[in-house]
């Protein structure tokens, strides 16, 4: 079976844990309203007021004037993420992180040692609660698609198991938009023809879905029957690492979007270095208010794991995408791919491209950046505070 483990209101719960006197009060982590900040995470007391992550802080404060807004402490959340990962690793090396607070675990090989998948799920949930004083919601199911739905089913503090013979019973009542890959456009197309639940979608033949949805029709057919053969892929064997954020309202401020993108890239860089990987291609994804999606990529000569270097490229891609036009952005994603070695011609082209002084300067800069990242990671692990903050992050305003 596959486990999907998802921390409840992660950043906000970590801050609540660090500030027990604030327990139960509406609290968010995010940028300040005056700096046009965005909410990164909201605890459940704040959610009761309609406050959501990726909502502008100014709007959240209108909904809940007593809201406590805490600055984002990326280093702390990275350190705790590593502690959570350490607990996962007691039970399986097959861990696919989706973000700092969410991962798939393949525990099929661990059942002989530690008991059923359900027992392993409970052990992990309990250890996270006892050792880290945080709450995780757990989904246990035969595949990734179902495990993710299951962990979300009973949030917060959920534990949901979907056994092989309960799949259809579990899926059928769910609204179609819960299916992975069904966005707003597909949802309204389905609703128009009277299909609102998975059960109604399942009554369609595969041919019918293919004629409506083209290539993704087959995938849709499989998912609504609970079929998903995607394996759990660890960071070190994956082809890409990316994080993304969907906003509650369309955002137009370039500076805000940049600060969100930088915090995504800090997470991506951290995962690269944790997995001892370097990447050559940097990817940016933007979804506009009309749900059209564009991506831009850039490949650099030498693979890097430096947050600063990845950010430099990402920032130029963002400027390229958003710099000149009027835009309203619904989602932003940032990631890296193309792991591996430098291109073979690198030495040569470097020699011709750069005069010796520049080259020496460049490698000095690289070294400095590397030391900065290593130090930031060490500090994150040890003290959980990102003392060395880079230019512009959510918390800088
Ligand atoms: Mg979560």
Features:
397 residues, alpha+beta, Alpha-Beta Plaits, MutS, DNA mismatch repair protein, domain I, DNA polymerase, domain 1, globular, binds magnesium ion
Description:
The protein has helices spanning 10-18, 44-47, 57-63, 74-89, 111-114, 117-132, 144-153, 167-171, 184-192, 198-202, 206-213, 216-224, 254-274, 307-322, 346-353, 356-383; strands at residues 2-7, 27-30, 39-42, 68-70, 95-99, 102-106, 136-141, 159-161, 240-251, 279-288, 293-304, 329-339. The chain has 397 residues and is α+β, with helices and mostly antiparallel strands. The strands form three sheets. Strands 5-6-1-7-8 form a five-stranded mixed β-sheet. Helix 4 (74-89) crosses helix 16 and helix 13 (254-274) packs antiparallel against helix 14. The longest helix is centred in the C-terminal third of the chain and has 28 residues, at 356-383. Magnesium ion binds at residues 6-7, 10, 101-102.
Question: Could you estimate the helical fraction of the residues in percent?
Answer: 40-55%
**Annotated CATH architecture of the largest domain:** 2-Layer Sandwich
- If you compute it from the alpha carbons, what radius of gyration comes out, rounded to the nearest whole angstrom? 22 Å
Q: Please name the CATH topology of the largest domain.
A: Dna Ligase, domain 1
Uncertain runs are 342-359, 383-397
Tell me the β content: 15-25%
Class based on secondary structure composition and strand pairing: alpha+beta
Give the termini separation. 44 Å
The unique ligands bound to this protein are: magnesium ion
H/E series: EHEEHHEHEEHHEHEHHHHHEHEEHEHH
Number of helical segments with 4 or more residues: 16
Principal-axis shape equals globular
- The count of β-strands is 12
Largest sheet: 5 strands, mixed
The total tally of domains equals 4
CATH class of the largest domain: Alpha Beta
Mean pLDDT: 87
Strand line-up of the largest beta sheet:
5-6-1-7-8
């Amino acid at each position: 079976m596959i486990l999907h483990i998802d921390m409840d209101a992660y950043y906000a719960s970590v801050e609540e844990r660090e500030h027990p006197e604030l327990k139960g009060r509406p609290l968010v982590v995010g940028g300040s309203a005056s700096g046009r900040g965005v909410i990164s995470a909201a605890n459940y007391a704040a959610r009761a007021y309609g406050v959501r992550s990726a909502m502008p802080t100014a709007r959240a404060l209108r909904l809940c004037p007593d809201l406590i807004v805490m600055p984002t402490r990326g280093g702390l959340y990275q350190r705790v993420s590593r502690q959570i990962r350490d607990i996962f690793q007691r039970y399986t090396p097959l861990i696919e992180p989706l973000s700092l607070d969410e991962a798939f675990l393949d525990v099929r090989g661990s059942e002989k040692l530690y008991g059923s998948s359900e027992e392993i799920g409970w052990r992990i949930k309990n250890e996270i609660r006892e050792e880290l004083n945080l709450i995780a919601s757990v989904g246990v199911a035969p595949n990734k698609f179902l495990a993710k739905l299951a962990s979300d089913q009973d949030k917060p503090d959920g534990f949901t198991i979907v056994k092989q013979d309960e799949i259809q019973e579990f899926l059928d009542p769910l609204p179609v938009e819960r299916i992975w890959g069904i966005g707003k456009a597909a949802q309204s197309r389905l609703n128009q023809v009277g299909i609102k639940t998975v059960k109604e979608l399942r009554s369609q033949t595969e041919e019918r879905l293919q004629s409506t949805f083209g290539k993704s029709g087959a995938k849709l057919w499989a998912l609504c029957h609970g079929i998903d053969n995607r394996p759990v892929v660890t960071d070190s064997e994956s082809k890409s690492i990316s994080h993304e954020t969907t906003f509650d309202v369309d955002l137009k401020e370039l500076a805000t979007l940049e600060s969100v993108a930088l915090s995504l890239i800090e997470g991506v860089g951290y995962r690269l270095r944790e997995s001892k990987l370097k990447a050559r291609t940097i990817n940016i994804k933007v979804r506009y208010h009309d749900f059209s999606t564009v991506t831009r990529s850039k490949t650099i000569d030498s693979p890097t794991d430096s947050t600063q270097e990845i950010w430099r490229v990402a920032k130029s891609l963002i400027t390229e995408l958003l710099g000149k036009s009027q835009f309203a952005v619904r989602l932003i994603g940032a990631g890296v791919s193309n792991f591996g070695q430098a291109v073979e011609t690198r030495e040569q082209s470097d020699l011709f491209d750069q005069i010796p002084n520049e080259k020496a300067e460049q490698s000095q800069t690289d070294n400095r950046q590397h030391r900065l990242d290593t130090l930031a990671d060490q500090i994150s692990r040890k003290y959980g505070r990102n003392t060395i903050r880079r230019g512009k992050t959510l918390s800088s305003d």
